[in-house]
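User: My advisor, Dr. K., asked me to get a structural model of this assembly before our group meeting. I'm new to this, so sorry if the format is off. These are the inputs:
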Amino acid sequence: MNDKNQSTDTETDNSISPAKALFYGDIVKPLFWTFPESSPETEEMLQMVLDSVDRFLEGREDEFRKWDEAGAQPDEFVQDLRELGLFGLIIPEEYGGIGLSNSAYSRVLQQCSRYDSSVSLTIGAHSSIGMKGVLLFGTDAQKEKYLPELATGDRIAAFCLTEAGSGSDAASIKANAVRKPGGGWTLNGEKIWITNGGIANFFTVFARTDGDAGKLSAFIVERDFEGVSSGPKENKLGIRASSTTTVNFADVDIPEENLLGDEGKGFRIAMAILNNGRTGLGGGSVGGMKTCIALAAKQAKERKQFGQSIADFGLIKQKISDMTVDCFAAESVVRMVGHYIDSGHTDYSVEAAISKVFASEAMFRAADESLQIAAGNGYMKEFPYEQILRDARILTIFEGTSEILRLFIALSGMKGPGMLLRDLQSATDDIFNSPIKGFGLLSDYAGRKITQITSLGNERIVGAVSDDLRDDALIFEKYSLELARMTDVLLRRHGKAIANKQFALKRIADVVIDLFVGLSVLSRVSSMDADDSDQHQQAVAIAHLFSQKAKRRMNRNLRAMLRNEDAAAKALADSVFEAESYLWDVL
Ligand SMILES: Cc1cc2nc3c(=O)[nH]c(=O)nc-3n(C[C@H](O)[C@H](O)[C@H](O)COP(=O)(O)OP(=O)(O)OC[C@H]3O[C@@H](n4cnc5c(N)ncnc54)[C@H](O)[C@@H]3O)c2cc1C
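Assistant: The format is fine. Below is the predicted structure of the whole assembly, which you can bring to the meeting.
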């Protein structure tokens, strides 16, 4: 077996996934060092877009609040978004867009989210997922026909996957497209909770094309096609001004040329779009965190209790410090993933999932803690905190829940080592029939074991970081090897049944998240000018804080793998499920 993700430090192959390599104990140095930088031309273009976003959104808090209460953005505002070119951010210039890279686009969404999440979402649902399929899988004719109007916003896009019976289990959708004898399809089905559902006139729709248990395909559907309709706006907890509706397809005729990508590849297309779009959501989360930090810092300094500013209290300082470390870490990992996508990496799905889980959860923590700092004021509608908290709640739900993404991260990462073990098993069974294959596998496996047992891999990245980050690098060296050891233990113990060991998979995912995010932080800080400026010293301090906290979390997760209360927790949950209530009322 030759898995690309078993790598050496010298490989820079674009098909290597640095996160999957961690499951072998490998830190693929060239994929972490050096931290990505934009070209001066990109920076100049990006700065222009950011400035125009600032000019457009600054000082409009009252309007955003009004639209939150009304549950919609006015048509004139959407028209302004069009005129600013915000629907064409990632569309190549030849089709009338701005042609931003994935990283630059994510940075623009970050800027929008500093002001209002619903604004980000209207733009993000269009670009990150609604029309992304045309860029990734569209034919030349589809690009020519749709991209110019998608760039101007004359067409606003939505991504239609979820159905009433099919959320996380996206492969179980029931919408169906039946082939017509003369060519084309007839589409039927209802999609729910579709962002931009009420304002979009371009839909990327996923439907079953091959019987009940058969394959999915993706289609481009225009609102003007007969039989397309959307329901009333949903009344939501947060991101209320963003349009969310059902979208219904009743006997809609879909022309042959509106199949997106290959027939039967719809599931793969949906996942590819979502993976590619995750940096948009990650960028938005980072923007929200920056707002929370600024609001909370100002509030804490101004608010006096016990005769002093609450900013003087340790527990408030701890919150501000945690939010700042989280934000720096989320920014680092989102930037790293954007760079992988921009530089043509083909296997970044695990990294993208890690960035989404980390950034979205960090954003929710920041929203919660900034509200806690503002306390009673934070709870009141005249302050921005409660809306930020409500808006942030969706981030760990849509575009893949945190639970599903953690399972995906762990299982995708364990797949390679699992196949190696399986091949090893069959090689040892078959060693006399196929000695060459068997010995190759055995010696490869033995080499890896020696690395894991003796930690010979140490010193692999310490050389790449500045002296002041040496101890931090050693932490990630050590725990990448621990991860590989634990992966091996779990695979030997459970074999394929590991797929159902969710407590263990969550712990594995959390270790990988800490490793990958931590390495992104080290890479970023190492790439800064190692001078004595306050900013550099503070960045080093952030790296230390992240590394030490990550070390404690990784240690706890790995120890709990062998000694835990999982069986008792499951049994307790089962008894509550049976009673459907809490069983221990006290009178
Ligand atoms: C405001 C909003 C906007 C949205 N926009 C869009 C959009 O534009 N396009 C679109 O297609 N969809 C959209 N969605 C749908 C969204 O992607 C789904 O809500 C999401 O995928 C989760 O599906 P679900 O809500 O049905 O939860 P379920 O899948 O029913 O999950 C319920 C809970 O069970 C957990 N769970 C599920 N399966 C497992 C498992 N195997 N193991 C462990 N835990 C599990 C989940 O993590 C979750 O906590 C939107 C949703 C909302 C609320």
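One thing worth pointing out at the meeting: The pocket of flavin-adenine dinucleotide is lined by residues 125, 158-162, 167-168, 193-195, 236, 244, 394, 397-398, 401, 403-404, 407 (CB under 6 Å).

User: Perfect, thanks a lot.
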